[in-house]
Amino acid sequence: LPFIPMGQISPQERRYSVNHSAKRSTKCHNHTATSSKERHKALCASRMEAVLKYSSRHPKPAGLSLQYGTAGFRTKAEHLDHVMYRMGLLAVLRSKKTKSVIGVMVTASHNPEEDNGVKLVDPLGEMLVQAWEVYATNLANAEQQELQTVMTFIIQQEDIKMDQKASVAIGRDTRPSSESLSQAVIDGVTALDSKYHDYGLVTTPQLHYVICCRNTNGEYGEPTIDGYYKKLSRAFNELVKQVAVCGNGRLYLNVDGANGIGALKLKEMEQHLNSVLSLKLYNEGCKGKLNCECGADYVKVQQKPPQGIEVKPLDRCCSFDGDADRIVYFYKDHGGVFHLLDGDKIATLISTFIKELLVKVGLSLQMAVVQTAYANGSATRYLEDVMKVPVYCAKTGVKHLHHKAQEFDIGVYFEANGHGTVLFSKTAEDQIRQLASEETTDDKKKAAQTLQNTIDLINQTVGDAISDMLVIEAILSLKGLTVQKWDEIYTDLPNRQLKVKVADRKVIETTDAERRTVRPPGLQEKIDNLVNKYNLSRAFVRPSGTEDVVRVYAEADTQDNADALAHEVSLAVFHLAGGVGDVPKPLR
Ligand SMILES: CC(=O)N[C@H]1[C@@H](OP(=O)(O)O)O[C@H](CO)[C@@H](O)[C@@H]1O
Ligand SMILES: [Mg+2]
């Protein structure tokens, strides 16, 4: 039977399904059940010996406890060596279980340079299935003497055949600590006598792409980084060749590379693009520190341009995050006022573009947009009321958005912070490709080909700054839109994000896709009362999955009101949820 990863069975049939390239064991099975059980036991025992031997080179600091959170493990790099080794072990078990190549990405994305982290990539390039996150946490936190017990538990619980071959693909970002940490992952894989391919410096989405290609026997694309560049650049070049681009025939874009891997890889990608796109790269990592006063997270949260980039009025600019899976756009108007075009604006641009093409080709496919509670109220209203696109709210973390988006023929999902992509079901993709190859009216065929190239340009495995950037650039040029015109499609409600330190953030429990709290008692009532004081207002709080803080979000009719509401809600959290340190101060 084909293996369907647990928790990933979606109502829509997906375009790509796992093709088991890793062969089953060829050993003959004419022994009795008992002797095969004994052989398995002996194999486990000998592997375990190696696991423990290698493990002593990667000791766990006693008492350290971490959790596989929204995006894997993340903390100070010096605390992660044992976690990396153990994630190497877990990746092998996951590979044996799924009979597929499993990815391990060493990165802490937008966190400071001193941090690091690790996330596992499942067979179709998706995030590690949730049920295994618990194994990851247990394995990372097992004291040295408990390691064997935890490993044995996972093997038995998942009925893992230890003689099944395994293969792990490893990638890393540009942090100084990443190279030695990825070596620890390799040690884990080696301890279990398994194969690995070290892809070295890659963006997170590039690793996801390669994993998907390898497990679908190349159906998704050529399973190399060069194959990634070729696939995306071919689609992009096809898309933009039909437009007479404004001005002197070139698109100009300033890119803030966050001093990270995205800058490095964008330079490689640029060589594959026809000269129509002229990129000016800033914060490319030669001098500045990773994510330090630059990058997508800084620009989104601080609502200001990154350091080290000269922004002239109306210049189109974008920022990547530290592992290049997020992107936001921005510009300054003639008055020098900064304008941010975040994940919500990107989702609106892309879904509008796709919807218009679907009308042109006459396909009635079900399209929806998936957001989180952080989506600006104006974006949700515009999509629902003006565009008539159904909008769904998922919990924070791309795995939640990804799963929801899989329910539709075309699922566009973006977090407000710029992480997102578009998923096409098999039905949708087949119908579009069919139309693009048929003899039909010129307009219809052209629209179908545009859709087909858009599919090829999008990295469906995960949000991808490079791919999203090219999609946006293509759409803007095809629609003849300036960044200002794109921004004017709707006006964001002023908003504010704050953080509150509490003794134990788990005291806050949420419901309704994190938009309301059920604990501690009285908090939601207090938030409701505060929200009622302002116009067009909304506020919610939730414990972060990546930092030891409670996040507060508020929006209202003016920036002053959004700031005041966010501050008042912060005070409510501080007093009702066990705040520590200084009482939150007003913003102005
Ligand atoms: C408000 C916000 O931006 N939260 C981010 C952040 O999660 P938290 O659980 O809020 O810490 O990091 C996640 C991983 O990168 C990302 O998916 C998410 O959107
Ligand atoms: Mg990231």
Automatic annotation (TrEMBL):
Residues annotated as domain Phosphoacetylglucosamine mutase AMG1: 226-328, 342-480
EC number: 5.4.2.3
Cofactor(s) this protein cannot do without: Mg(2+)
GO biological process: carbohydrate metabolic process; hemopoiesis; UDP-N-acetylglucosamine biosynthetic process
Protein purpose: Catalyzes the conversion of GlcNAc-6-P into GlcNAc-1-P during the synthesis of uridine diphosphate/UDP-GlcNAc, a sugar nucleotide critical to multiple glycosylation pathways including protein N- and O-glycosylation.
Keywords: Acetylation, Carbohydrate metabolism, Isomerase, Magnesium, Metal-binding, Phosphoprotein, Signal
Record-listed Mg(2+) binding positions: 109, 321, 323, 325
Top-level division of the source organism's lineage: Eukaryota
InterPro entries in alphabetical order: A-D-PHexomutase_a/b/a-I (IPR005844), A-D-PHexomutase_a/b/a-I/II/III (IPR016055), A-D-PHexomutase_C (IPR005843), A-D-PHexomutase_C_sf (IPR036900), A-D-PHexomutase_CS (IPR016066), AMG1_II (IPR049023), AMG1_III (IPR049022), PAGM (IPR016657)
Protein name (record): Phosphoacetylglucosamine mutase
Region (Disordered): 20-39
UniProt key word Secreted: no
Comp. bias (Basic residues): 21-30
Active site (record annotation): 109
